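Open question from group meeting: does this chain pack into something compact, or does most of it stay loose? Before anyone orders reagents, we agreed to write out a predicted structure and look at it together. Recording both the input and the output here so the notebook holds the full record.
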Amino acid sequence: MKKTVTVRGLTIGEGAPKICVPMVGETLQQLKEEAEHLKTLNVDIIEWRVDFFEHVENILKVENALVEIRTIMADIPLIFTFRSAGEGGEREISTEYYFKLNKVIAGTRLVDIIDVELFHNEQDVKTLIKLAHEHGVFVILSNHDFDKTPPKEEIVSRLRKAQELGGDLPKIAVMPKSPADVLILLDATNTMNEQYADRPIVTMSMAGKGVISRLAGEVFGSALTFGAARNVSAPGQVDVTELRRVLNLIHSNL
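Structure tokens returned:
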């Protein structure tokens, strides 16, 4: 029996993939407007991509913004993500600050999940995961390749490593150069899900070619998909209303 991840009454890892939509506001006012707008849509989870925030390097301002965002969102589950430039994010910060920021935010208990990038020092990652769990916060342990699609074995290996290190939601996103690359990602997802995963996994092939991976996750074993409202945070994200319609169509026929 695989574990699931339940946040604010939402269970990831059962039924149709859950829909997550990013907030990418640069200012507090933009973030508040985004949060108000997203609250009106049929989304399951909201991700704050804090690397877009103009004051991300001031922890107190990040905390204050988080309090306002949480107040608006009420009981919608929230993921906190600083995506580094090397993995497709908006900016780079020091490794020391990256871990400090995530530890402080996990400690506020105002977020439900933090996203931690896999390719950091293993002990630092384990320590952060342990601290997050002590505060009742789950962890997406993620990896993003915006240049290519690694071989199937490598994709499975990274997902297995994320699981072994204690990530509650192992995640990988890769860039396809061809339709065959999309099949590699889907095959790796299926293999991981059927042979190794003891918890929900999250996978996607990005850009236009990879859109099918954002729609058909339930078939192959991906438990979470990322849609778009006004702004996208990665290439290939589908409008949330269209995405919900297709997910429901697939789910009802399985």
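Observations to bring back to the group:
The chain has a mean pLDDT of 95.
The longest strand covers residues 138-145.
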